[in-house]
Amino acid sequence: MKKEIHPEYHKSLVHCACGHEFETGSTLKEIKVEICSKCHPFFTGKQKLVDTAGRVERFKRKYEKFNKQTSPGMSAEEGKK
């Protein structure tokens, strides 16, 4: 290995937004993260509510014009004529 070209490897303190702190090794001395193993849904088994308000309704409004063209019992090809 060449000398003086590699960054120094430190013991780093990782700070999570949930308040949990732990130590790891890195070239940075301090790391701030939003999600860690103490608050991530995969590790906790709890599901976080994702804000999707209005997305489904907006999708349905956008594509309902295509559903109106084809009535029940008609194929999509017949509805386009």
Tell me the overall shape.
elongated
**Amount of beta strand:** 15-25%
CATH topology title: Rhinovirus 14, subunit 4
CATH architecture: Irregular
Low-confidence stretches: none
Q: Could you give the count of β-strands?
A: 3
How many domains make up the 3D coordinates?
1
Structural class: alpha+beta
Helix segment count? 3
In CATH, what is the class? Answer: Few Secondary Structures
Helical content stands at 25-40%
* Spatial extent as radius of gyration: 26 Å
Give the topology, please.
Layout: E1 10-16, E2 21-26, E3 30-33, H1 41-44, H2 55-69, H3 76-80
Short description, anyone?
With 81 residues, this protein is of the alpha+beta class. It contains three helices and three strands; from the N terminus they run βββααα.
Any overview of this molecule?
This protein is of the alpha+beta class and 81 residues long. The protein has one domain (10-70): Rhinovirus 14, subunit 4 (Irregular), CATH 4.10.80. Helix content is 30%, strand content 21%. It has three helices and three strands. It has helices at 41-44, 55-69, 76-80; strands at residues 10-16, 21-26, 30-33. A three-stranded mixed beta sheet has the order 2-1-3, with no helix packed on it. Strand 1 (10-16) and strand 2 (21-26) form a beta hairpin. The longest helix is centred in the C-terminal third of the chain and has 15 residues, at 55-69.
